[in-house]
Amino acid sequence: MIESMLLEYIQTALARAKYDIIEDDEEPYYGEISELEGVWATGTSLEECRKNLEEIIGEWLILRLRRNLPIPPLGNFKNCDHR
What we know:
Layout: H1 2-15, E1 18-21, E2 29-32, E3 40-43, H2 46-66
Antiparallel strand pairs: 1-2, 2-3
Helix pairs in contact: 1-2
């Protein structure tokens, strides 16, 4: 059940991602989720950037859970205080 909740949170976060193209960069695709502080990724293509962003969100969630830090509410996740 927890795994499915994490996957749903990641998908909700990805739906909120904003992407830009950075000219003259080795990995020109840049994506971030403004509601999740410090969550951003780059890639050589939009698909690679999205995949990298998905991995970063998962790692970010695990770190927040391990450190007992709050997880910002997104979509149906209104109360994410797991402490």
